[in-house]
Structure formats: C-alpha cells, structure tokens
Amino acid sequence: MLHRSSHRSDSDSIDVEKKDTEAIEVVVGSAHVKAVTDEERAWLASIDTKEQDRIYHKVDRRLVPMLALLYLIAHLDRANIGNAKIEGLETDLNMEGNDYNIALMVFFVPYVLCEVPSNMLLSKFSKPSTYIGILVLCWGLVMTFSGLTKSFAGLCGTRFLIGFFEAGFFPGAMWLVSQWYPPQKTQTRMACFYLSSALSGSFSGLLAAGIAQMDGLRGWRWIFILEGIISVIIGAGCFFLLPDSPSSASWLKPEEARFLDLSHLAYRGVKATHNADGTKKPHVNMSVLKQVACDWQLYLQAMVFWSNVVPNYGLKFTMPSIIKSMGFTSTTAQLLTAPPYFCGAVAAVVSALFADRISWRMPFIVFHQLLLVIAFAVLMSFADVIRQNVALCYFMVCLACVGLYPIIPGNNSWTVNNLAGAEKRATGLAFMIAIGNCGGFAGSFIYLPEEAPTYPTGFGSSLGFATAGICAAFLLETLYWMSNKRNEHITEQEAIAQYGEEELERLGDKSPLFKYSY
C-alpha cells in the first residue's frame, strides 16, 4: 500500500486507502492488452471518481491552455493572408488573376505531405515540448520575414515554409492529448484548444483592424511582422511551459503521475515508444504506416474531415471579402469577422461537452454538418442580392461557423478512440488529418475572384462537401456497428485460444475483442 507523504495535504493527495469494490470501467474502443498488472488495476480501481477528476483538471490547467494558445497562433499565421488581402497585399505585390488562390494553395503542399512523417518522428521524442517548440519558433520567424517580401514569388516561398513547419503541430497536439487523457475525456479537451482556431478568426480581424492603421509600412506588412513576432515569443515559451509526460511533470505528486501513467496504459495499451514486451523501439516502424494506409475507416473519417476543411478554409480566407461585399468598409469588415468565429468557438465546446457526456460522437457531427447545409444553401440562394439581405446573409455566415467548428474535435476524437496502439494512433491520426487537409487545396480555389461577390462555386462546393460528410458519418456508424455485432459473441478465452495474446496485441483495433466507439 502507498502511504501519503507527510508534506501533502489531504485535499491534494490521492486517497489510496479507500477501496472500491468496482473494477475499472471497460472503455469502448479499447484493445485487448496486458499493459498493467492485476495489482496495478486494483490500485487504479481504488481511486474514486472525484479524485480522478481533480487530477485531470490539474492537467487541464497546464496542458490545454498552452495547446490552445499554440493553436491560436498557428491559425492566426496561416489565415491572416485573408486580412492582408484587403489591406493592399495584391496591389503591392502586383498579383493578378488567381495569384491569391495559388498563394493559399502553396501552404497545403508541405502541410499535407509532412504531417505523417512528423507525427511518426514526434512519437519517438521523450520531450514533445522541444519538438513542438522548434516548429513554432521556425514558422514564427518565417511569418515575421514574410512582411518584408517584395514579390509574389517571395510570398509563395514564405507560405510554403509556414506550411512545412505548421504541418507537425496539429496532429502532434492531438497525439499529445491522447497521451494524457482516456478516450472518453478527449473530445472536450480537443475542443477547448480547437476553439482557439475559431477565436483566431475573431482575434485576427480585431488585430488586423488596429495594426492596419499603423504608420511606416503598409498595413498588410505590419500584420505579418507583428503576428510573426508574437509567434516567436510564444514558441520560446513552449520549451518551458508545455508539459511532456506525467513522469516528467514536477507539478504532479508521485501518486498523481502514477495514476496518469497507469491509466494511459490501461486504456490505450503499451507505451508509444515500447514494444509489447517492454523493449525500446529503436526506429520508426514502417509496418505501422502500412497498416494505417490499408485501414478503411481512416478514409471515411477523412471525408468527414473534408466537410469541415473545404468550407472552413474557403470561408476563412474569404470572409473579410464576403463581408466587405455586403457594403462595409475594410476596417468594419475586419471587425465584423469576429462574431461568427466567436459563435463557432462556443458551439465547439458545448457540442464536445455533450458528446463526451454520452460518449457518442456521430449525432453531434451530423447535426453540425446539417447546419452547414442550411447556411450555404441560403447564402447561395441570396448571393445575388446580398446587399439587400445583409442581416440574413451575415447570420448565415455566423451559422456556418457554428456548423464548422464542432466537427473537427468530434472527428478527431472519434478517430483516436478507434485506433488501438499508441504508435498506430499517432500515425493513423496524422494520416487521416493529412488526407483531410488535402481539402485545403480545394478550399483555396473555390472562392474565385472573377465570381465575386456571389461566389457560386464557393458556396456550392461547401454545400456539396457538407452533404458528402453526412453520408460518410452515417456509413462509418453503420460499419462500426456491424463490426461490433459480428464480434460480440467472441469471448476473451476463445480469442486467446485462436490467436494468442501477442497476436491480439499486434492486431490492435483489428482484434476480434476490439469494440469500435460510436
């Protein structure tokens, strides 16, 4: 039995002496693994629910705000080109035709290609804070110097580098969350820092409206330079403020760190950097990448991802122009981009809270996809008379954001919970996000300058991808249910007799004992 250290207060210690008779809850989506001993499971079962919640809230205060801040600046730096556009960017760099759309697209080439190798590399790092901190510093420096570019080619070069360095952050942050929390607690945490993507839109518009009034340089140059400097400062803080793992967190009590480590092993399986027998994995396992590439569910999850990415990037890059076309000045249009993003941020958190509470992702994803269908159908119908229907169309822009921002946290949580094995989870999540972010190429070109201000291609494509996402979500739910139904009569003893424990571990989410989560 563990004893409390004398310097700990009762309120800040785990009550290890209170014994519950209940076993640890079996989480849907967990694989058959022998990652913890029976004695360790008994110790975990002795921790009451209130004590567990206190520990996770303690982690929340350290991990989630830092990830949210990093995610905010990531989206700020990739999307501020939309604010720069109406502050003279195209005129100063002699851009014409589809040059702006090309500059948007260039970002996604390295962003898509580098996500999987970056996450495979990150899963081998003992200090993710170092890896992520370097990425943030690098893209912040590039963002700063992009404010000094003199040509369209220079703009494309800086956009390419920003995409290269940002590629590793989002899937890396998702992986880091999955290392600290059990499956049923992931979506709310993901939503809490993903909401900063929505807030970045609000913040970017407000910040751009103020920065653009500065003297000395053109407004768009100040936007890039000052927002880049902010990223550099926050990136430097990442080395000291972003927690790596429970075992290395000095702010956790020993029993708290042990609880988090053992909980992760009990729910998720073996350590990300270790084999089933406990030996260190010396290099990137290419067989895992092959398993991931052949996993059908990731392609359907990517289609759900597209229902957000294509409309989201298209709207994010074009919203200032859409609102300006309603008859507002550039400064007013910048300011009016804030409320829609704020609505999206609130919706992301509320949706995640309910989804985590009932442990069911699909209905909340589909509900918000339906809101997207309504919003873009109305915008498409009234685009020709947008100045005569400003209130309605602006409300639909807000509704579109309410539909957009809850999808990704639900989609990523759904994916994470249905991948067994830490290494496959890291690689599989990055793979799905990489495929999903291919939608960024489409999002960069659906709002064509020659179609302004009605943007039939933009609104119509967004409507189509939202509809396809609904179909993909229903198909996923059906296939998950069929798989669970097919294996529900297989007992643990039968599976072990047929496959053996090592083979069941290797099979991961393809094991007959694995239960997909909905």
Essential attributes:
518 residues; mainly alpha; Growth Hormone, Chain: A; 71% helix; disordered N terminus; Major facilitator superfamily (MFS) profile domain-containing protein; MFS
What's the short version?
The chain has 518 residues and is an all-alpha fold. It has helices at 38-45, 49-92, 99-113, 115-122, 128-146, 152-166, 169-180, 186-211, 219-241, 254-268, 286-293, 296-324, 330-336, 338-358, 362-382, 390-404, 407-417, 422-437, 439-445, 456-487, 492-499, 501-507.
Fold and architecture overview:
The chain has 518 residues and is an all-alpha fold. It has a single domain (43-273, 284-510), classed as Growth Hormone, Chain: A, CATH 1.20.1250.20. Helix content is 71%, strand content 0%. It has 22 helices and no strands. α3 (99-113) packs antiparallel against α19, α12 (296-324) packs antiparallel against α13 (330-336) and α14 packs parallel to α16 (390-404). The longest helix is centred in the N-terminal third of the chain and has 44 residues, at 49-92. The two termini are 38 Å apart.
Report the CATH superfamily: MFS general substrate transporter like domains
Give the low-confidence spans.
Answer: 1-34, 270-282
Radius of gyration: 24 Å
- Along the chain, the helix and strand elements come as HHHHHHHHHHHHHHHHHHHHHH
Which structural class do you get from the secondary structure elements? mainly alpha
Secondary structure elements and their pairing?
Layout: H1 38-45, H2 49-92, H3 99-113, H4 115-122, H5 128-146, H6 152-166, H7 169-180, H8 186-211, H9 219-241, H10 254-268, H11 286-293, H12 296-324, H13 330-336, H14 338-358, H15 362-382, H16 390-404, H17 407-417, H18 422-437, H19 439-445, H20 456-487, H21 492-499, H22 501-507
Helix pairs in contact: 2-7, 2-8, 2-9, 2-12, 3-6, 3-18, 3-19, 4-7, 4-18, 5-6, 5-9, 7-18, 8-13, 8-14, 8-17, 11-18, 12-13, 12-16, 12-17, 12-18, 12-19, 12-20, 14-16, 15-16, 15-17, 15-20
